[in-house]
Specification:
642 residues, six-stranded mixed β-sheet, alpha+beta, single chain, three-stranded antiparallel β-sheet, 15 strands
Length: 642
């Protein structure tokens, strides 16, 4: 009997203990409730759960956050601003929130589930706007109009012709020696600020504007300037705002914004160690490099990456909760005549969802780990922490797109209706992929840093291949995944060494494909480690069993994509490769009866789920309109055929 067979036998026995059939209702027994409680405890910050997540979970359960049918895009945008104010009312201190990376990220996990635009507004106001003010000298600055939302804050960095190449921004802030202030100006059409929420919807607004500081004609680099945009009477003189066309996804008041020689007072400049003006108008900086000054000015983008990946976590878990519940409630004809079974009973239906569940758990635990790393970073390891935040943002948001798309498809035509809570989640994820640094761009940056600066990822994680190494051995599978990262790092560095000298572009082009594979392998390994660490912390037996099963499924799936390399390197045998499909199928079969337990642990408020027809045993007909005008029936009499 092989180790795989032994594992299956043990697992089958365990499955019988905790209930091995597909549930057709959402009621949990004592055993399942204990497992749900333990899983939720591990997923949501453990003993810090109520402080970090409790406020936001309770907030979105309210009727104010229910789906509103038949609203125009403009009305939906206005509703999102109203919801931002409701959110602000339950925040004891907006400044404390802006400085608490855990609570700020958690806000996005829950807000995006009910309103994709709310996560966007919250990220801009609390993190990019208010956070930037707090990260600079602010002791003498009155922030009350922003913390009370008397004025909503926004952030103007990206320009029409300058997206990820922020260092090339053209918006100017010219120091005016006569007044000590600055003249903010948009010199070309391409320098218009692109996509900020600067319309009059939502009330008066102020912005933090990234602009190139010129002092006596000398370019001092990019700095931030606090700039009022509008009041109750409209936009202020010199501020031109044009609404952009509607985009896909949740409506938002995206605009093009430009400045025509707008004068700003001396205190508009956001100052810190990277740049302060003295009384003589001289810039004093502890950072001599203009690029580093820019990165210091816009450092809140790193926290923004955590917020974007958190938002993707929330929508992924919500999509899975809806799809799994619907799969258990939707009954179809069974192979035996006259019988009905839930559609989720089919392997073709539940296997993709279980792979998504394993990934969602890995995503969540990875994000918790990365937030901890960011909160606890020092000056010495800041660059490494920032890189891990960027890599995580790319991997989590890309996985979220795949998960939400899969869940929408598993709900069939029902999943196309926004009222069923799932169709707009994929588009919400699209925004997180691009915001706070386009995923591909930040991965390319991470790849270059890992090739040039990071220590070599050592080979030999596994030692010589042994017949005892089994596809249910988590340590063996984790070692294989580590070897994949090593393989791709070797390839990338070899490509760089062998690339054409004197042509850096061609040299990098020959390296980038392998380098990006290396980054992806690194992300998957970090996610696997986070999932394994969480499984090791589980105390309740059923929760530990389920987390072990998720680890196994996740690792098998990741390894399966690299069997060619692992076989070629002598790290897997031909028998391993042949057994892999059956091992994955067995892992799926063992977890399949417990899908409801796994999604119940996501702890979505029952009030929220009860409003989603397909997540609460209902149908979309509850949102259908009243019957349109009908005519009375009449009988059409036809002559009998002769």
């Amino acid at each position: 009997m092989t180790l795989l067979t032994l594992q299956m036998t043990r697992t089958d026995a365990r499955q019988d203990e905790i209930g091995g059939s597909f549930h057709t209702t959402h009621h949990r027994g004592t055993t399942q409730s204990a497992a749900v409680g333990e899983l939720s405890h591990l997923l949501f910050e453990q003993h810090d759960r109520e402080r970090v997540h409790g406020t936001w979970r309770e907030l979105i359960a309210g009727e104010e956050f229910a789906y509103r049918p038949h609203l125009s895009p403009t009305e939906r945008t206005a509703l999102t601003y109203d919801r931002l104010r409701l959110l602000n009312e339950v925040v004891p201190s907006a400044t404390d929130l802006a400085n608490d990376a855990r609570r700020l990220a958690a806000l996005h996990e829950w807000a995006g589930v009910v309103d994709g635009g709310l996560g966007t507004l919250a990220s801009i106001h609390y993190n990019l706007f208010l956070g930037s003010l707090l990260d600079h000298d602010h002791e003498d600055r009155d922030l009350s109009r922003f913390t009370s939302l008397e004025q909503t804050g926004t952030f103007l960095c990206t320009e029409l012709e300058h997206g990820n190449d922020v260092a090339a921004l053209q918006t100017l802030a010219v120091h005016d020696r006569a007044t000590g202030g600055f003249v903010l100006h948009t010199p070309t059409p391409g320098a218009q600020k692109f996509m900020p929420n600067t319309s009059l919807t939502g009330g008066p607004k102020s912005a933090v504007v990234a602009a190139r500081l010129l002092i006596d004609g000398q370019d001092q680099g990019i700095y931030l300037f606090l700039t009022p945009l509008s009041d109750h009477d409209g936009h202020l003189p010199g501020v031109q705002v044009r609404k952009l066309p509607e985009r896909t996804g949740t409506p938002m008041d995206h605009c093009l914004t430009s400045f025509d020689r707008v004068w700003l007072p001396r205190e508009a400049l956001l100052e810190a160690d990277h740049g302060r003006l003295d009384d003589e108008g001289r810039l004093n900086s502890t950072v001599g490099n203009r690029r580093k000054r820019l990165l210091s000015s816009i450092s809140r983008v790193t926290s923004g990456k955590l917020c974007m990946s958190a938002g993707a976590l929330g929508v992924s878990r919500a999509a899975l909760a809806i799809a799994v519940r619907y799969g258990h409630d939707r009954h179809i004809s069974a192979p035996r005549a006259g019988e009905r079974i839930p559609v989720v009973a089919h392997r073709s239906h539940h296997a993709p969802l279980l792979h998504s569940l394993a990934t969602a758990y890995a995503m969540t635990f990875l994000h918790r780990t990365v937030v901890d790393r960011w909160v606890g970073h020092t000056a010495e390891n800041q660059a490494e922490a920032e890189r891990l935040v960027a890599i995580t943002k790319g991997w989590v948001t890309w996985q979220s797109r795949a998960i939400t798309t899969e869940c929408r498809e598993r709900c069939g035509a029902q999943g196309l209706f926004p009222a069923n809570g799932i169709s707009e989640l994929t588009m919400a994820t699209e925004g997180t992929i691009t915001a706070e640094g386009d995923n591909l761009v930040i991965w390319v940056k991470a790849a270059s840093e890992m090739i040039f600066g990071q220590e070599t990822v050592e080979r030999g994680h596994l030692g010589p291949l042994s017949p005892d190494q089994d596809l249910t051995d988590l340590r063996f599978l984790r070692g294989l995944l580590a070897e994949v990262e090593s393989i791709w790092q070797e390839r990338a560095r070899r490509s760089l060494r062998e690339g054409p000298s004197g042509d850096p572009m061609a040299r990098w082009n020959g390296t980038s494909s392998a380098a990006l594979e290396m980054v992806g392998a690194h992300a998957r390994l970090q996610a696997a480690d986070a999932l394994l660490a969480a499984a090791a912390q589980a105390v309740e037996p059923d929760a530990r069993y389920l987390l072990h099963g998720l680890c196994l499924l996740f690792l098998l799936k990741q390894v399966s994509a690299h069997t060619g390399d692992l076989l070629a390197e002598g790290l897997m045998s031909a028998d391993h490769v042949r057994q892999l499909p059956a091992a994955i199928d067995a892992a799926v079969a063992h977890l399949a009866p417990h899908m409801l337990t796994l999604v119940d642990a996501f702890d979505l408020p029952e009030e929220l789920l009860s409003r989603v027809p397909i997540a609460s045993g209902g149908q979309i007909d509850r949102y259908a309109s009243e019957p349109e005008g009908t005519r009375s029936a009449s009988v059409l009499r036809l002559p009998l055929a002769c």
